[in-house]
Design the sequence.
């Protein structure tokens, strides 16, 4: 899905995500514990749902997305002196090495054509003792109902570039140089694998 497609989707994004409100509330609680008094980068922020719900705990959040319309919607949704929204490509970030205590990328790696590049950039801008929080929908081997939803989404333009089970997603992160600190599955429309990682320093 390209930036223009996401621009069109921005108008209905919040309604689309509402069905997973309970899972997201659980996720916000988990993330708040890790961002307290931290400098945070969020990639693929969409309309700012995560950033807006955790900003009170953080010192500062840079929340980015490659869709200009998503960022415009996010700016309207959330307003805080500790929160800055901008349009960025997760694969080529403008930030200096080791700029952030925490990087968050939620439900995005499976729709990126080159997720490894995003993970490489995250590793560069994250401090050596920093945390990557990378929740992701993991839909391989799911129920018939879930597979049917995926077919409808694909027809609407939401094409997945990676289809992971929870275990396969964790294996993918490890393969790209991340040490898994914790992982759990949250119940959502699609299984949501919540993962916290640290850099593998010799990778």
Sequence:
């Amino acid at each position: 899905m390209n930036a223009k497609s996401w621009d069109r989707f921005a108008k209905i994004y919040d309604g689309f995500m509402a069905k997973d409100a309970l899972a997201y509330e659980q996720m916000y609680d988990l993330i708040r514990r890790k961002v307290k008094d931290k400098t945070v980068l969020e990639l693929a922020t969409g309309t700012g749902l995560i950033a807006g719900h955790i900003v009170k705990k953080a010192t500062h959040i840079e929340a980015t997305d490659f869709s200009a319309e998503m960022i415009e919607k996010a700016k309207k949704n959330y307003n805080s002196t500790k929160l800055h929204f901008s349009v960025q490509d997760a694969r080529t970030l403008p930030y200096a090495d080791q700029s952030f205590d925490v990087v968050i990328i939620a439900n995005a790696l499976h729709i990126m054509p080159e997720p490894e590049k995003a993970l490489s950039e995250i590793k560069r801008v994250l401090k050596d003792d920093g945390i990557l929080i990378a929740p992701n929908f993991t839909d391989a081997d799911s129920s018939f109902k879930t597979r049917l939803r995926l077919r409808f989404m694909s027809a609407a333009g939401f094409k997945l570039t990676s289809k992971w089970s929870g275990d396969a997603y964790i294996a993918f992160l490890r393969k790209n140089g991340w040490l898994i600190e914790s992982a759990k599955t949250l119940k959502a429309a699609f299984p949501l694998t919540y993962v916290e990682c640290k850099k593998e320093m010799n990778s």
